[in-house]
Amino acid sequence: MAPKITDFVEDAGPVGIIAGIGAVLLAPVIVPVVAGIGKPLAKSMIKGGLVAYEKSKGAFAELGETWEDIVAEAKAEIAEDKQNPAFEAVSTPVDTTADNGA
After folding, report:
1. How far apart are CA 75 and CA 8, in angstroms?
2. pLDDT, tens only, 63-92
3. What is the DSSP code (8-state) at residue 98?
4. Residue 92, φ and ψ in degrees, nearest 5
5. Does the pLDDT of residue 40 top 60, yes or no?
6. Who contacts 17 (Cβ-Cβ below 8 Å, separation ≥6)?
7. Are residues 12 and 20 in contact, defined by beta-carbon separation less than 8 angstroms?
8. Cα–Cα dist 75/40, whole Å
9. What's the pTM?
């Protein structure tokens, strides 16, 4: 069963009815004021979001470059260690069971 307008009026009571009438009468005045305030507010929020996006985009690009530099340095160190004979000597097992003659 669909709700009837009388159901809303009975539930609202006298205060609700007066508030509803006031809202209907003031709507032509309030709506343009709210729209006048809301549009600049929304525009400033959008501008702030765009500025934050641009700044973060630059920061992420810089972070990516730094990461690539670190990875390249690590790869270069690994390649250098593989060519260094001292690296191979360290990586071979040492026989600790030999008697030193003492």
Report:
1. 74
2. 999 999 999 999 999 998 888 766 555 555
3. S
4. -85, 145
5. yes
6. 9
7. yes
8. 52
9. 0.38
